Amino acid sequence: xxxxxxxxxxxxxxxxxxxxxxxxxxxxxxxxxxxxxxxxxxxxxxxxxxxxxxxxxxxxxxxxxxxxxxxxxxxxxxxxxxxxxxxxxxxxxxxxxxxxxxxxxxxxxxxxxxxxxxxxxxxxxxxxxxxxxxxxxxxxxxxxxxxxxxxxxxxxxxxxxxxxxxxxxxxxx
Length: 173
Description:
- InterPro entries: TVP18/Ca-channel_flower.
- It is a multi-pass membrane protein.
- The chain crosses the membrane at residues 30-49, 61-84, 105-136.
- By secondary structure, this protein is an all-alpha fold.
- It has one domain (34-158).
- It contains seven helices and no strands.
- Helix 2 (26-50) runs antiparallel to helix 3 and helix 3 packs parallel to helix 6 (120-141).
- The longest helix is centred in the last third of the chain and has 26 residues, at 147-172.
- The chain is elongated, with a radius of gyration of 24 Å.
- The model is unreliable at 1-5 and 7-20 (pLDDT under 50).
């Protein structure tokens, strides 16, 4: 160790806290995490079952599904991967992603095995992983507005439409 390393010890990376501005409530964040873990379990079992064949496309889809399960466990439940040194770093990086990025990533991962081999095993095995992506996608849309603001917007649009209609009628006369 050099003298410079002794003077400035490396700071341990702090786990990244999920951003408070993503609009997700605590229970919805846990729902997404649980769906990710359950999706990982379903991908792992269905992928293993899919590999028990002689069809090479089924084997490729099964291997991809097991890779999906590993990625889902790594991103959503790093405590399941304690034996992997970089699990917490990957999970922290995944937590910093925006919801729409996670949605696109998870849905894209779930579609590939179905495109490789369209069987019931791949469809049902990837359904929950795809649903996890859909949950993250819904959270990216944001919260629903209240009825009062929708009524105001509707009233303003109605007034603008009436003004345009009366303006065009006056121009024709």
